[in-house]
Design brief:
The chain is of the alpha/beta class. The protein is built from 18 helices and eleven strands. The strands form three sheets. The chain has a six-stranded mixed β-sheet with strand order 2-1-3-9-4-10, with helices on both faces. The protein has a three-stranded antiparallel β-sheet with strand order 6-5-7. The chain has a two-stranded parallel ribbon with strand order 8-11. The longest helix has 15 residues.
């Protein structure tokens, strides 16, 4: 969701990254009694404490392996820079987005297409990896999925006699009732540009059509055609914010919502742990964005929020794989999804938080769709363009800019 730099690699570099890591029959350094260090590099700053806990457990079980928990600011930018310098961390945890696609195509990660670990992963999430890279091979193990839903304060809904909306018209009617009661419907945090993305992803995913990006790549459609409805509805929602939409950031929004300063929060479920830190007693729920007036067509935006990839050039590939398998263990994976309010990509591993009960039907029906921004290159800074849209509310200008930027990416005028 943040601006990243372009990845530049020569053919020679890519070939060197594809070199073999050694025979499978070779004894690992840790098995020979030597202490080895591997680096787990990830972009989940909110999960650093959870990973600290899991790493401590892993190191107790594997005393000859030290794991470095690396989580720098602007992690994806740092990762691209390191990849260009042939300094790829042993295990990488990022989302299934354009950064992952670029690095996969450059041969940075081990080919895991035939890995037995994939047998226990939900096929829908494996397909998302293939879709986002455009490759037949699979270069990571999907680990956790998130969901992009409307977080709501149950106490405020009860006080105002509101019910969870199922259609777009009902959604707007709820916002109107909250506003009429002198309360804030949505707490926007546009000081941080990326916070425009959750709601826009939900609006676009439910209105763009199933083949939008395929058609776009073929020149058979445009953002002006496929994203007009989503953009107009995005602008409509801006009518229901607070007095300082542009002066508040993500951290501010989490605390404000926790304190009851809005009835709803247009974020993803990743915000819930931070909200509960600010108010452990808050009674909240989540429902899918009701983007259209046909509830049967509503799909929950859920993508691979965290995947586990192994560096092609790791000096300790077996130790790296051992750590990945440790994280995939059901007990450890359950720890992650419980503490991070995420959904597991592992078959049969469920999310039991009552606050997320409103999303279970979507998962049960398979009414899921990937994040549209995962298919938009970082060079098109969607978050910044949306941030500008929140200021000028110029739908045509935004769509024209998106089409212009896409043509640049495609090398077309």
């Amino acid at each position: 969701m943040k601006k990243t730099i372009a990845l530049v690699m020569s053919s020679a570099l890519v070939l060197s990254m594809l070199s073999a890591c050694g025979s499978k029959n070779e004894q690992t350094a840790s098995e020979s009694g030597k202490k080895v260090k591997i680096e787990f590099f990830h972009y989940k700053s909110e999960a650093k404490e959870t990973f600290d806990k899991l790493i401590e457990k892993f190191e107790k079980e594997n005393p000859n392996i030290d794991v470095v928990n690396a989580n720098p600011p602007e992690a994806e930018t740092v990762l691209k820079t390191r990849a260009a310098k042939r300094d790829v961390p042993d295990v990488v945890g990022i989302g299934a987005d354009t950064t992952f696609a670029e690095l996969s195509k450059a041969g940075v990660f081990e080919d895991l297409t035939n890995a037995s670990e994939l047998d226990n992963i939900q096929p829908a999430y494996i397909k998302m990896l293939r879709d986002v890279t455009g490759l037949d091979k699979v270069y990571a193990i999907p680990y956790a999925a998130n969901a992009d839903g409307v977080i709501y304060n149950k106490a405020i809904f009860k006080e105002l006699g509101l019910t969870v909306p199922k259609t777009w018209d009902e959604f707007i009617a709820v916002a109107e009732k909250v506003k009429a009661a002198g309360k804030t419907p949505f707490y926007f945090t546009f000081k941080d540009a990326w916070t425009t993305l959750p709601v826009y992803n939900a609006l676009a995913a439910n209105t763009q059509g199933e083949t939008f990006f395929q058609d776009l790549n073929k020149g058979n459609t445009s953002f002006k055609e496929g994203y007009k409805e989503a953009t107009e509805k995005f602008v409509k929602l801006l009518e229901y914010g607070h007095k300082d939409n542009f002066g508040k950031g993500y951290a501010d929004g989490n605390v404000a919502f926790a304190k009851g300063e809005s009835a709803m929060y247009l974020q993803g479920i990743w915000a819930i742990p931070e909200i509960k830190k600010a108010n452990p007693n808050i009674e909240l729920g989540v429902f899918p964005y009701p983007v259209t007036n046909n509830p049967e067509q509503t799909k929950l935006v859920s993508g691979v929020d965290l995947l586990l990839a192994i560096s092609k050039t790791s000096k300790h590939p077996k130790e790296a794989k051992k750590f990945v398998d440790f994280l995939l263990d059901e007990e450890n994976a359950k720890t992650y999804i419980t503490e991070q309010n995420a959904f597991s990509a592992i078959k049969g591993l469920t999310q039991d938080d009552p606050a997320l009960a409103g999303l279970k039907e979507s998962f049960a029906k398979g009414a899921l769709v990937d994040f549209p921004d995962h298919y938009i290159p970082a060079s098109i800074n969607l978050a910044n363009l949306l941030q500008q849209l929140t200021h000028d509310k110029d739908v045509d200008k935004f769509l024209k800019t998106m089409d212009s930027e896409w043509k640049k990416v495609q090398g077309r005028k």
